[in-house]
Amino acid sequence: MSILTQIANSIAIPVATEPPKPKNLQDVYDDANVAGRDDEARATKRVADYFAAPLASFEADVEWFDQMFPLAHRMVQVPGRERSFWKSRNGYNKWRNKVRRRIEHSNGAVAAEKERKARQDGWALLNELLHTLSHNGGPIHGGEAGAVVAFADWARKSAIEPGELDCEAIALILDRAPSDNIRRKHLRALEVLKRYQCIRSIAAHLPDELDINRARRRFENALPPHLDIWIDEVLEIGRLKNAKYDRTTDKHSDAWQPTTVGTYRSALRSYVWSASRERGGQIDLDTLTDFSELFTEDTAWVVAANWNNRSEMPDGLNPRSAYDYFGHVMTVLDRNEMDPSSLAKVREDCEFLVEGKQRADEMSPKTVQFCRPLINIPQRRRSFLTQHFAYRDRADDILATDKMLTASQLREVRMFGTCAAFAAIELCGAPNRVTNVLQLRHRGPTSNLFLPTGHADHYEIALNRKEMKVRKGKPVPRQKIRRNALEGAQTLDWYIKTIRPLFPYGNAQWCAGIDQPFESLRFGKMQDLLQRSESPHLFVALQSAGHLSKSVFYEYLCEASEAIGMPMTPHNFRHGVASIMLRRSLANIGRVATLLNNSPSVVEKFYAWINEAIVIEEVQDEIMDEAFG
User: Fold this and answer.
1) How many secondary structure helices (H) and strands (E) does the chain include?
2) 463 & 526 share domain
């Protein structure tokens, strides 16, 4: 029927309705003002200040907001930290949560959430049952019931009832999770349901079996048990291959060290995981029995492509690491008399891996970016070389109080104090590897850090060949930390006297049985109370007599260095010191090699960019001389 015929017959022409225009942050700001939430309006306006752009140019989209402003667990994760846009991590997180919730109010997400929670469906019955079983001494913890309530809301978004939680439904919910943190919470809730499926009243709401593991492998490095066992077996064979058994010590000499085994395990697990169907490969890990299928040329190409596609993601491998991982897998295969030639061919032909091979011979761009200001800006150089003073001052400022230290203050004192001592060793002794420093022992028969005694007022570090990863026959020099203007020894004195006792297993009084040796702080609930022996380590673990873990120290240094305006990682000490010495004179290559316990050729290769910069400057000076000479 034509339009003219419709008009003649007086039939109304339907008007095309446009979909509602999506809201932007200006609308969110206006909504906050209308609702009388001035604090939320001011918080929303800071987005415009952050980007130096009008609010109307940003959609009111929670996913975009989470991407731009993620929840920060450390100061180094706070956006805009380099320009001090937020004063603290806590202040940033409070601002973020406030604006995020206001966006959800404006775009209707809060109203939709209330509607879902009001539904009378299978989840409502299950949640009510879990709530009942979590009260009055019931078998379920309240936190577990709360985890399922949160998961139920996400399942309702996908129109999935609890009785429909098969493998595909679980995978769909996990796939739609907006972040890894939310996905982990989903998995915890599913584990709660699986744990209590033995209760008949709960099982009545669920499918006969909850297959969580198959779905989670798409997002976690989880392998079937039989593959984990096989990986352990081939690593044990590889560890002992070519090693000699000593009947006196009941040990194998020249066997792989635990750290080496750990590196090879990571490479092998990542390779196998990336070859699985869950990661886009062709291998069904659950039914795999012929493990040689993992190492065909086709599978190796799939793994390389997977690593290439994910290389820009937070958990991805860069080309250099991917190249090394291929090499590690080939080594394990060779030691188990399995053919690594297919992997070798892919490693030589794949552009992504070839790029990794080329990068292995040069310093990473991130490290160059850190070192370049050190050689070009004198103030930056001085701040780097004296950073232990800044850490000490921060710790002393917190301790200068007659009030009880809060838990956060105690953590900050430990953090700044530990970083001060670590920096003193790296800058005033020698830039050692992180593990070597964290495992220093100044007490007991295996000490490798000797304290000042008698006329010797310096500290001395004596690491052995294995600790330093030095080849046979090469001597390992001792490192002195002397008393001079840099105050390396003085900083260690201060750390041992003031900071180390703040760790329970570094406190002689606490180890002797005095539960609270300080009036200004409380250690709280501790582990291993029956084994109160003082730690032999200079850097003490938080809850045991072992050494401080690398993960905790990395967190400490990242946050502390950020706080003093020198954001860095522990590895930057070695590169920073070497760059500064080579900037003074390229004749220092031999001295830097001795300091780092490397060969001059390695130093020359990794720090070639400094030589290139100096050569360019010299050529520029010669051009200027020719022009005006």
Assistant:
1) 31, 5
2) yes
State whether residue 604 is helix, strand or coil: helix
Rg (CA), the chain: 30
In the numeric block, which tokens belong to residue 520? 């200004």
Q: Give me the pLDDT at residue 508, please.
A: 87
Q: Is residue 32 part of a domain?
A: yes
CB 356 within 8 A of CB 320: yes
Claim to verify: residue 486 and residue 564 sit in the same structural domain: yes
User: Tokens 């490192």 — which residue?
Assistant: 479
Closest of 83, 21, 86, 89 to residue 56, by C-alpha:
21
Six-digit token pair at 313? 């993601």
Q: Are residues 64 and 31 in the same domain?
A: yes
Best CA proximity match to 126, nearest among 157, 153, 99, 89: 153
- Give me the pLDDT at residue 232, please: 92
Per-residue model confidence as pLDDT tens digits over 174-219: 888 887 788 889 999 999 999 998 999 998 999 988 888 777 766 7
Share of the chain above pLDDT 70, in %: 89
Average of per-residue pLDDT across 570-591: 84
Say yes or no: 178 and 273 in one domain: no
Question: At which of 332, 359, 386 does a domain end?
Answer: 359
Phi, psi dihedral angles at 245 (to 5 degrees)? -90, 130
Q: Does 354 reside within a domain?
A: yes
Instruction: Read off the pLDDT of each residue in 21-32 and give the average, rounded to a whole number.
Output: 90
Contact, 175 vs 167, CB < 8 A? Answer: no
Final residue belonging to a domain, choices 77, 107, 137: 107
Q: Which residues contact 20 (CB under 8 A, 6 or more apart)?
A: none
pLDDT in tens, 343-375: 999 999 999 888 888 777 677 778 888 888 888
- Interval 219-229: pLDDT, tens: 776 788 899 89
Tokens of 27: 């609308």
CB atoms within 10 A of CB 355: 17
- Asked if 380 and 514 sit in the same domain, the reply is yes
What is the rounded average pLDDT of the residues 286-313? 89
Number of other CB atoms surrounding residue 208 within 10 Å: 7
Q: Give kind and range of the element (H or E) at residue 422.
A: helix 407-428
102 and 133 together in one domain: no
- CA–CA separation, 193 and 205 (whole Å): 10
Q: Which domain holds residue 326?
A: 225-359
At residue 27, the pLDDT reads 92
- b/e per residue 467-476 (b: at least 16 CB within 10 A): beeeeeeeee
In a domain? residue 68: yes
Per-chain mean pLDDT for the chain: 85
User: How far, in Å, CA of 295 to CA of 343, rounded?
Assistant: 7
Whether residues 311 and 375 share a domain: the answer is no
Residue 13 lies in a domain: no
Q: Which residues contact 411 (CB under 8 A, 6 or more apart)?
A: none
Q: How many CB atoms lie within 10 A of CB 93?
A: 17
Residue 365 token pair:
């761009």
The pLDDT-based confidence of 7 (bands split at 50, 70, 90) is very low
For residues 190 and 271, state if they share a domain: no
Q: Where on the phi/psi map is residue 243: left (φ > 0), alpha (ψ -120 to 50), or beta?
A: beta
User: What's this model's pTM, rounded to 2 decimal places?
Assistant: 0.65
Amino acid residing at 54:
P
Contact call for residues 548 and 421 (beta carbons, < 8 A): no
Give the count of domains, the chain: 4
pLDDT per residue as tens digits for the range 229-260: 999 999 999 888 876 655 555 665 567 778 78
User: H/E element holding 481?
Assistant: strand 479-481
Q: How many Å separate Cα 405 from the centre of its chain? A: 28
